[in-house]
What does this fold into?
Amino acid sequence: MIFRTELPYNPNNSIKIDYKSKIFTIGSCFATEISNKLSEYKFSVMHNPFGVIFHPLAIENAIMRIFSQEEYQASELFKYEELYLSWDHHSSFSDISKEKVLNTINQNIHQANSFLQETDMVIITLGTSFVYKLTQFDIIVANCHKIPNSNFSKILLSEHQIKTSLKNIIEMLTEMGKKEMKIFFTLSPVRHIKDGIIENNKSKSKLLCAIHSVVESYDNCEYFPSYEFMMDDLRDYRFYKEDMIHPNDLAIKYIWEKFKTAHISSKDYTTMQMVKKVNTSLQHKIQNKHTIAYKKFLYSILKHIKDLEPFLPPMAFKEEFQELRNRMNESY
It folds into this structure.
């Protein structure tokens, strides 16, 4: 007896990335999960240079600024509760220093532009069709920064608006990137139930229809069914975190395995396992750090990293290597 509907996913002639590939991810927090997995295995990834953003207009604006390399000016920041912020960025781009925020934002723009020119795969994750317009300036924001709702009006984008935005994103990425670059659209399975359950479904359905309509019009675009894996394949609250909104680690691992099988070259699986082994070793807790056995343990990790270097992007283990050096100095 079968108790679930498993979603088959075996795309024909789809792109296969490897350790020579560059991957760019942008969008809602589910893009972060895929990016974290790729980074964990030491692939070359750039993720959300504007921070986590949820709706298509915010993503379009971010890509436009990256495409044009139009730097932000001090006048585009605002101060709230002692911190300087940007309406186009996540709250992680905040500081008491206006200059620091501005420098970080503009550095990210130029780094993203350079990275996208060499990118093999772009992953765009859309989260919601709802946008918030700042009443005072009549602008749509990427993030409300916990400012009172009375300052905003809430709007549900039409399917036409979403399609137009997605097409603009594709055109800019295509012009900026490599000829062989593939653009993957995904719909975040994270439920925005603060909008209301019915409203969340309306929002997701508009995104889903727009994505499929647009993807079918471009040869360099594909759809990855992360939403369907969560909602129709797993389809159980045991695959959610305690908030009953976000997928838990088991669900993320399941969807990651589907992505890995379909879109990562199998010739790199052995290298990925070796990277995982090093990561596991680095997390190992040692009771006594002044023993010969501990020093041998550290040297063995260093050797594994050295053995992996020819197969990975340059400086993939830079931070871990420095950490090992520090731990060695502490052991003397």
